[in-house]
């Protein structure tokens, strides 16, 4: 078995470690204990994860003398809303979670984002630990401190930057993920190669089909992704510049998630993968990158058995103008101008506000 890897996120007084390895859940008590002022934590999770991984976590905490109470929320993107946020915050208050206490988010990106936001606003800020249980959460959402919930008007529009105090990514818990959720998370892994690391994308082309069943390759993919994200977040914690590159595919993806009602029709990572394909197509159409680049992105998504076109999203989609209107809520917008993450090639993304709406509409139309 491969030894755990630690990626440090050096953010001064908000610095923390991301630990990645097999069997970390069973050692969670020992890992979390040094953070505690008193031996108790509040755990928040979702129903699917609770059935599979809550007991082992609570046993591991108990083994180190740490008491825990757990709140189980409904699973799925629909949970990232005001009602569930309120339920979570009220429960944490009921548990008398104090300023010096620690909240544990056990689950995928939905739980991590919602619980992180609850921790950010509870008593004006308590610490939290991320225990990510999806591939997406391990490579992306548990790191970097973006927390929040959705609005019908757009994705993640209500939130705060609030860094976790520790991230424990046990790669073994990914064994229980559905194929669909694993592949959706893979959308964010591929994104890292596409936005800034052509060699990593090449490695993924050779190895990604084996990730699901090879723990060593999986650990490498998670650790490499986390290291890339940690580097970007360290240089630009609050997205004043470079961090926007992590949004590759998201201007499209978030509009599509809003258009499909944050439902099972389109998972976040699926929207990101389709969005990456569209961002590369748009870049090629604008003469910014060679046509081989979007073809290569498309071929890789196909190789992984992933959807790459709008026409593969089940059900009706709004027309192109409505999708573009939804993009207007994107957080990268400045002075009402859309800003897109485009690419000069695989591994070479940049941010641009010079996208012609007619070309954008044409790319959307042709992707249907
Ligand atoms: N904060 C960030 O930087 C950031 C980054 C990327 C994505 N996100 C957000 O993350 C969310 C998507 O996260 P996600 O894809 O993890 O979705 P998710 O949290 O809904 O998890 C996907 C599904 O897998 C189940 N599940 C979780 N762990 C499991 C396990 N080990 N075994 C079996 N089932 C398990 C969940 O119950 C759920 O049904 C979106 O809301 C997205 O906006 C945030
Ligand atoms: O961490 C970031 O920065 C990202 O953009 C990572 C994305 O994968 C993630 O989906 C994030 O939540 C999107 O951020 P948003 O600001 O566009 O909501
Ligand atoms: Zn994302």
Automatic annotation (TrEMBL):
Indicate where this protein is primarily found.
Answer: cytoplasm
Question: Under which pathway is this protein filed?
Answer: Metabolic intermediate biosynthesis; chorismate biosynthesis; chorismate from D-erythrose 4-phosphate and phosphoenolpyruvate: step 2/7
Annotated GO molecular function terms are: 3-dehydroquinate synthase activity
The UniProt annotation places NAD(+) binding at 109-113, 133-134, 146, 155
Q: What is its EC number?
A: 4.2.3.4
* Gene3D superfamilies referenced in this protein's UniProt entry, alphabetically: 3.40.50.1970, Dehydroquinate synthase-like - alpha domain (1.20.1090.10)
User: Locate the 3-dehydroquinate synthase C-terminal domain: which residues?
Assistant: 185-333
Concerning InterPro entries, the annotation shows: Dehydroquinate_synthase (IPR050071), DHQ_synth_AroB (IPR016037), DHQ_synth_fam (IPR030963), DHQS/DOIS_N (IPR030960), DHQS_C (IPR056179)
Task: Give a Pfam family name.
Answer: DHQS_C
Please list the residue ranges annotated as the 3-dehydroquinate synthase N-terminal domain: 71-182
Q: What protein does this entry describe?
A: 3-dehydroquinate synthase
Taxonomic source organism? Paracoccus rhizosphaerae
